[in-house]
């Protein structure tokens, strides 16, 4: 049952769009951008409740990001697009993901409207697992106590999970800040996996091969968080059938030595010649930052520096 003008879709591991066939569910709710270690601990808790009750875990999430609807000028650069978020939620223990199309109408639902429509009518929740700072409904007026109170009259129990991370609690905005500062090692420590950029390899200026360092170029994805300009040690995954994974030295920037204009993620795959990656979908997983981007006054000095970068990247990744 879905009593709203807003659209909601189902996603499960088969990529299909069907609701679980059970009478009741274990639900966890969040924006879940990045699916960081805090989100993963919520999923793990929902998983353990579900394993005891025999119900499926449904992760409820929103697309677009709620802030981009009620305060577009403050819309964050996201760590994950909705497809990747769903994939990570399923990998983290959800049996199905319910993606709610967040709009101004949904933003105006009172906490009780939200709980009734989503948790009771749509999902038949028997258990709801949320973080201790969870808020919901118009103006974020609902909190964990309010949810538990509503649940006691509507057939579901609420469990709140302590925030992970200690003094600096894990959060999507913390990861966005670390990625934006180029602290990709710090970001990975909160995500539980490397920060990443995914895209299709396009043609550049065909200069890399002349320099001895051909680079697979991916445009910086609009709206997504990308590490600040600089040079990084990273893994490159070919997401095609072969599914290979290579060590790489990666430049993020607009090639200031050549007065370039397009900001790109350019990966030189170490110790591999003759690759043809044009048109391939690749994922770049950032491991460590080597240095900032520089405008060199000669090709030779750029090439000398690139050789040193490659040596360091090789060491870091070995
Ligand atoms: C390890 C590495 C370090 C790089 N460092 C810089 C740099 O400091 N300054 C710069 O202008 N370009 C830098 N680049 C980018 C190169 O200028 C770029 O890859 C080259 O011009 C080839 O461009 P193309 O792929 O469009 O042919 C770096 C590239 C790599 C792989
Ligand atoms: N070791 C390698 N690392 C990255 N790309 C490579 C490598 N060897 C061959 N290639 C191929 O070379 C292309 C990059 O060459 P380059 O001269 O930099 O051209 P472009 O300017 O179009 O990126 C890549 O897209 C890929 O298909």
From TrEMBL:
Catalytic activity: FMN + ATP + H(+) = FAD + diphosphate; riboflavin + ATP = FMN + ADP + H(+)
A GO MF term: kinase activity
Recorded metabolic or biological pathway in which this protein acts: Cofactor biosynthesis; FAD biosynthesis; FAD from FMN: step 1/1; Cofactor biosynthesis; FMN biosynthesis; FMN from riboflavin (ATP route): step 1/1
TM segment ranges: none
A Pfam match: Flavokinase
EC number: 2.7.1.26, 2.7.7.2
Boundaries of every Riboflavin kinase domain copy: 190-318
Family per record: Belongs to the ribF family.
Protein name: Riboflavin biosynthesis protein
Organism listed in the record: Aeromicrobium alkaliterrae
Organism taxonomic ancestry: Bacteria, Bacillati, Actinomycetota, Actinomycetes, Propionibacteriales
């Amino acid at each position: 049952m879905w009593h709203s003008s807003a659209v909601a879709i189902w996603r499960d591991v088969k990529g299909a769009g069907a609701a679980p066939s059970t009478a009741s569910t274990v639900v966890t709710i969040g924006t879940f951008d990045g699916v960081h270690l805090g989100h993963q601990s919520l999923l793990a808790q929902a998983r353990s409740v579900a394993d005891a009750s025999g119900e499926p875990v449904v992760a409820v999430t929103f697309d677009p990001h709620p802030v981009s609807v009620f305060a577009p000028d403050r819309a964050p650069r996201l760590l994950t697009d909705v497809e990747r978020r769903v994939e990570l939620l399923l990998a983290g223990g959800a049996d199905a993901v319910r993606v709610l199309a967040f709009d101004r109408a949904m933003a105006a639902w009172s906490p009780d409207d939200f709980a009734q429509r989503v948790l009771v009518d749509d999902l038949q929740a028997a258990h709801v697992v949320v973080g201790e700072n969870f808020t919901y409904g118009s103006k974020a007026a609902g909190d964990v106590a309010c949810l538990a109170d509503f649940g006691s009259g509507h057939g579901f129990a609420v469990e709140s999970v302590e925030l992970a991370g200690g003094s600096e609690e894990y959060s999507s905005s913390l990861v966005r800040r670390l990625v934006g500062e180029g602290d990709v090692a710090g970001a990975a420590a909160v995500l539980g996996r490397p920060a990443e950029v995914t895209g299709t390899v396009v043609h550049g200026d065909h200069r890399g091969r002349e320099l001895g360092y051909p680079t697979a170029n991916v445009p910086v994805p609009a709206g997504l968080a990308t590490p600040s300009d600089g040079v990084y040690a990273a893994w490159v995954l070919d997401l095609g059938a072969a599914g290979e994974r290579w060590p790489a030295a990666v430049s993020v920037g607009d090639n200031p030595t050549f007065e370039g204009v397009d900001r790109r993620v350019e990966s030189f795959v170490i110790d591999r010649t003759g690759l043809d990656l044009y048109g391939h979908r690749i994922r770049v997983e950032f491991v460590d930052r080597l240095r900032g981007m520089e405008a060199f006054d000669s090709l030779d000095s750029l090439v000398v520096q690139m050789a040193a970068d490659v040596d360091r990247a090789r060491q870091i990744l070995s």
